[in-house]
Amino acid sequence: MNARRSAGASLLLLALLLLAPGWSRAADIVDMTGRSVTIPDRSTKIFCASPPTLYLLYALDSTLAAGLNFPFTEKEKVHLRPDFVNLPVLGGWFGQGRTPNLESVMAAKPDFILAWYWHQTAANDVIEKTAQTLGVPLVYVRLDTLEQYVKAFEFLGRILHREERGKALADASRRILADVAPVVAAIPESEKVSVYYAQGPDGLKTECDTSVHAELINLAGGRNIRSCAARDSFGMEAVSIEEVVFGNPEVILAKERRFSELARTNPVWSHVRAVRDGKVMDIPAYPFNWFDRPPSFMRILGLCWLTNLLYPDRFPRDMVAQTRDFYRLFLDVELDENQALTVLGR
Amino acid sequence: MSVQYRTAALALLLVAGATASMIVGRYPLSLADLGHHLGLWAMEGTDPKQAELVRTLLLEVRLPRILAAICVGASLSVSGTAFQAMFINPLVSPGLLGVLAGASFGAAAGMILSTRWLVVQASTFAFGLLAVCIALAMARAYRGDRLLLLVLSGVVVSAMFTALLSVIKYLADPYNQLPAITYWLMGGFSLVTRETMTVMMPLMLLGTGTIISLSGYLNVLTMGDEEARALGVRVTALRTALILAATLVSSLTVVVGGIIGWVGLIIPHVGRMIVGPDNRILLPFSALLGALYLLLVDNISRLVFPVEIPLGILTSLLGIPVFAVALRLGRGGWN
Q1: Domain coverage including residue A296
Q2: Tell me, what's the pLDDT at A95?
Q3: Which of A275, B67, B137, B198: CA 20 to 30 A from A215?
Q4: In what order do the strands lie in the sheet with A194-198?
């Protein structure tokens, strides 16, 4: 009896010994698309497959990034942590060349690959299989709307054991969303400011009012003069200058500085109300664009900026202070007042 | 040095090159690790995780890629050599009858219409074959100089599939699909998997083997159709068989690594400079030379840069000095 008990005990002990490293090392999580993935319990290095997820991870904890998707420009570097911008460039699968070398990715020893689940394409299919071959788990986040960014902060905070940080970012985001929402809800349809979103060097590529690329205009209570159903998820709808003159927007949001300069000097554009009133606004883009392309959490600050821009009386906010707070919390960089003004393009 | 020795030397060089390629990579792996993994010597303190990693690195990442470079290089240069001999024209490359244009279109269409990579591969292969079949059928529809008609039909079919490819690119989502198509068509082996090579390698070897086994007949074809017929060769059947075999392997090269230019056009010439025009020697020699060349270029692509450089760019750029050296050293004579 005694011998059997001791045999049982030693078996139990053996099982514990075998299992112990297992349970401290691996954690089963459910990612934002509902897939079950096993990742190391304490993940310390993550390879982000494309810029939106890399920026997300940067906000949560920039020291966890295994590498960059592409090198940052000098202007962008100013607004990012120096240790982050000096990480090796590993490339990424985001359709702009810079295909990662599989061995470079392996040599970086990432605990998992973080990717944005957007479209399932044949090109993704082969990347998923490759990740499987390398034995590196793949975790998806969804980042289609602002709400999902908030959820993504909490999700990443949870799986990376940075709950507090994730919650702080999510709460700050929610505060901005909640600050804007009632103001926008109170704006009567007749008083909504008409907006044209100008992309491309000639400013004649825009987005439909229903497109996620122009989501901020709707959220900020603006009326996108281009009312249509998006042709596809890519957008960049071509319009003619006549349509813009006919739509006569009160505000133009310029993606490219080359366009905003053109609009101020070109006689054709002078027929548009926004140009006459000096309301061609450059969208802040450092270190990441506040509006779109690439989409990032900077949109949350972008929402505050755009609402303030469209309705300075209904939504009076000190944008310099807001910008400095946001950069301090999300990007971990300190801006002085002049730098904040430069970022805001004032 | 006789041609047999040169071929043997080249084969040895290829084996050595392939072995050396297994050892080098951007993942730092010491020779000690390798020898240990291969069971050459035992080491203290075996870490099962490390062993698993070495296994993945060697068998899943490096080996498929090295095999892909060798097979694609050999396939392209063999089909290029066969085409140049068959059409008695030194400016001909494997894409002559529209196989590469068709395969490119197939790959692009697959990427647009499907979310499965397997479908893309199947579509690439099918359209490569289809393009050549259309060209063959068109050439048959008219009576006249067979070779000229084949070349002409090939040009027409290539133009058609190039135009269709442009339609696909024009309709593709430019943020996601268009770059995927564009970069794929620049060529590269970064995502070659073991499963792909398990299927492709035997087929490519079969195709190149068929062409090489017909090399004696190919010599007869280079004398012109009339002479070949006079010698009792069934010219049309032979040519069709050769074209189909060359098309099969060319199509497969696109399935494995996208469009890799240059190799199929210039490597046969370099081979001819070294061993002369006898196809019985030239074909196997070209195969080895093409394999070695592409292996070398792919090694540069995966070793020199932290991110991949599309292979199509490197084959052309690096090929120019290789061609210059071959011109200088060539002794075999052109004809």
Answers
A1: 188-315
A2: 64
A3: A275
A4: A223-224, A194-198, A251-254, A280-282
